[in-house]
Amino acid sequence: MVELLAPAGNYDKLKAAVRYGADAIYIAGKIFGMRSAAENFTEDELRAAVEYAHGYGRKVYITVNTMPHTDEYPVLKKYLQTLETIRPDALIVADPGVFMLAKQLTPSAELHISTQAGTVSAEDCLFWRSLGAKRAVLARELSLDDIIKIRKAVPDDFEIETFVHGSMCVSFSGRCLLSNALTGRDGNRGACAQPCRWNYTITEEKRPDTPLPIEQTNDGTFIMSSKDMCMIEHIPELVEAGISSLKIEGRMKSVYYTAVVTNAYRAAIDGYLAKGKDYVFDKRWLDELESVSHREYSTGYFFDLPTENAQTCRNLGYIRDKAYLATAEHDAKAGERCLFKQKNKFVAGDEVELISPGKFGRAFKADEIYGENGEPIPSTPHPEMKFYLVAPFDIKAGDILRGAK
What we know:
Blueprint: E1 3-7, H1 11-19, E2 24-28, H2 43-55, E3 59-64, H3 73-86, E4 90-93, H4 96-105, E5 110-113, H5 122-131, E6 135-137, H6 144-153, E7 159-166, H7 178-183, E8 201-204, E9 207-213, E10 228-230, H8 235-240, E11 245-248, H9 255-275, H10 283-290, E12 297-298, E13 324-328, E14 337-342, E15 351-356, E16 359-365, E17 369-371, E18 386-390, E19 400-403
Helix pairs in contact: 1-2, 1-9, 3-4, 9-10
């Protein structure tokens, strides 16, 4: 059975990933993770997250995938000893030194090899397997044909994981020195400033006051800014390739992103597993992915060589579609008042949509909005405010309200 692996940058996102269908969730503590700018989890939150997910039969993988320097190892040792008491299902590691220390200090956890390790061949996989690793997250630069060849050459007891959705790094497997060189923030230790997303020009030595664009579009120059990956239309090929785990990128994205993207891929995977040759792609799944903040979508390098199609952006920044308005705080029947927690303002009479696990964008008009004390209100202007809304559908805690446009 193929696994759907979702990201969670904090506890609320983890709960959303569980609720909307992830089989496993990957998270990080406050140290030694490659997304240090994310909120991440304290030790107590890591413990609570593992207990919560295990209560629903889901797995939790903790990233310990930076490249620590020698003087960081005493802290790393204590951290790994703590993780052993927390009992995650796996640690995601990239550095051989971290791998060997984790093998000694966290024997209860599987060891998964991060994409940062740049695994690109069956021989790579066999090497890590010989050391005791259970899984490798393959480099995003591989084609689907490459992945199929690796799967056929590696024993079935070694799992293969690939990214199928989210941001891509312009540098090979994320091993980039640009951020460190330009800002002093080490991308291999979780502090990338993403200078690949910046706008660049060149100058001629004798004409420094006349900068020239390297590649001009209507919005600017994006020679290093990668498109986002989206493989929702290719679930059958991914499953038939024998990939063990389909991974969504996005620990720094919103609860809305986690819920919607997980929901769409859950529906597509379940649809294919249930129907096989009778499977038909549902355009609503792609529509859902278009509703979250994203860059231009592509299929990454599954079908295109990086040397032939670099998959760099042609447009400025993110594409933003439907607004994340609120999250339901409790269950309610159709026609009953349901308490919501606000994320963005909307006005009585606006067209809105309700998202639930396995259900997409059920539209209705928000005619009746009430304040926390039950009084009618014209809008929801205050961040994080509580309010009541009446919908023509049954609502469950954790359902998401968004704008219809």
